[in-house]
Every structure is written in C-alpha cells, then in structure tokens.
Design a protein that fits this description.
- The chain is an alpha+beta fold.
- The chain folds into two domains: 3-81 and 219-253, no CATH class; 86-215, no CATH class.
- The chain has two helices and 20 strands.
- Helix 1 (3-27) packs antiparallel against helix 2 (221-253).
Length: 257
C-alpha cells in the first residue's frame, strides 16, 4: 500500500482538529476573559531507506541519506494569554486586570479555580460571585445597604452606607499569576485549574485592577478567518493527494502484459 494514502490521511485529520479549534475561538469572540487557542503540530516518524553517513563505497560516505516522512500529528493546544480589548461598562462590580494575573474563585468542591472574567455580581447574601454563582476567593461580602462601592487598583473593596460618611472596608481581592499560564487546565465556564505544568500560584508581579471595565476575548476574527482558509485549503490538498494515490494504485492494478 502506498505511504501517501496514510500520510495524507493524517494531514486531513490534523486540519480537521485545526478547524475545530478555530471554530471554538470564533464561537467565543464575545466571551469575557476568553483566551484563544492554537494547535501545535509535529511531523511523525520517518522511514529511513538509507542512513546519512553510511558508506557508499570503500572510500565514500552518503552525505544526506534517504528517508520518507509518514505524516503529521497534533501535539498541543496552547492557550494564548495576550491581553484582550477592554470595554467600559461603568458597572461597579465589573473588573478588568491590567497585566498578568487571575481572579481566584472557590468551586463547590472546595478547590480553587482561576479566571480572567471580571463580570462579578452579588448573591442574596451580598457575596461577590461569578455569573455561575461561584464565590470569589478570598470571600468579599458587600451588604445590601452599601452605596458607592469602590474597588481600588490594589483590589481593596470599600463602600459607604446611606446616611453615613464613614468608609467601610469589605476586604481585598487578591490576584495571582503563574510561571506558565499556558499549562493551566481549562475547565469551561471561563475557569482554569492549576496543574504541575503551570507551576504554583504566586502574587508576585501581578497586574492592577480597574473598576467599571471588562476584558473581552483576545480572538481576532480576521486572523481566525485567514487561519480557517489556510486549514481548509490544506485539507483539500491532502484529499487531492489521496485521490492521486488511489488513481496510481488503480493504474498499477490494471496493468496488462
């Protein structure tokens, strides 16, 4: 069987995964705090027909050798943590991180997850939560009678109560960062989880918080459309290679003496 059939098939499978990834990026173009992904590929093993450096004759060496590649494989989907565009909302509980860092939230099972989505709300108890009701960590509670909620660039949350001039402190939002954020495991719902590859969470070198703004997705529609066209053409080209291999096999099978 011709190698080209299986080699081209691996190329089609790789480009299918590439288009799947691009589709997910485009689907989340309006998702707050979303970070686009990129698929990384590698060539697979080579079939060596003649090794480089082997002896051709008694006093000569083969300079380059002869080998045939056997296709491609996807090896990683990497999250790109560049800063997304900022959109002003004037909502007191909408927060954006300028620079590196993640908000910390406490999942129902007690584990900590991390997010760039700063669209926070207050639940019935006055706790700051995500759109899914997941508690911010450390917990910040703002009473229902609070007015003029202010969140400083360092994360300090303060407010005034109607009829009082004193400023009350509700707590401080603590940001964390990772040595390798691309190593975080995506959980969906704009959340990430720490892994061995990401390293430990640290609060050194984190960015600042801006109130009344949201970070939008860092997906660039034009770039994704161009990538999709390239992937589509690569898929078509690999399918043409399969057709050409099939025709060559057909001709070989129909040889007559």
């Amino acid at each position: 069987m011709m190698r080209a059939l299986w080699t081209a098939a691996s190329g089609m499978q790789a480009q299918q995964l590439n288009v799947d990834n691009i589709s997910n990026n485009l689907a989340n173009v309006n998702t707050s705090g979303f970070k686009k992904s990129r698929v990384d590929f590698q060539d697979v093993i080579y079939q060596t027909l003649k090794s480089p450096g082997a002896s051709a004759e008694q006093s000569t060496q083969i300079p380059t050798g002869l080998s045939v590649g056997l296709g491609v494989r996807p090896v990683a989907t990497q999250k790109i943590f560049t800063q997304g565009n900022m959109q002003q909302t004037n909502n007191a509980l909408d927060l954006v991180i300028e620079g590196d860092g993640f908000f910390q939230v406490s999942l129902p099972d007690g584990t900590v997850a991390y997010t760039r989505d700063g669209a926070f709300k207050r639940d019935s108890q006055g706790n700051m939560v995500t759109s899914d009701g997941i508690l911010l960590q450390p917990a910040i509670t703002i009473p229902s009678e609070a007015k003029e909620i202010n969140i400083g660039t360092d994360g300090t949350v303060s407010y005034k109560v109607a009829g009082q001039s004193d400023i009350q402190q509700a707590g401080k939002i603590e940001l964390v960062r990772f040595a390798n954020p691309a190593g975080l495991s995506p959980l969906g719902r704009n959340l990430f989880q720490q892994t061995d590859a990401s390293g430990e969470a640290t609060n050194d070198g984190v960015g600042t918080i801006q109130q009344g703004w949201l970070e939008m997705s860092n997906v660039q529609v034009v770039e994704e459309m161009v990538s999709m066209i390239v992937a589509q053409r690569a898929y078509e080209t690999n399918s043409k290679a399969i057709q050409a291999s099939d025709q060559m096999l057909e001709q070989a099978a129909n040889l007559r003496r």
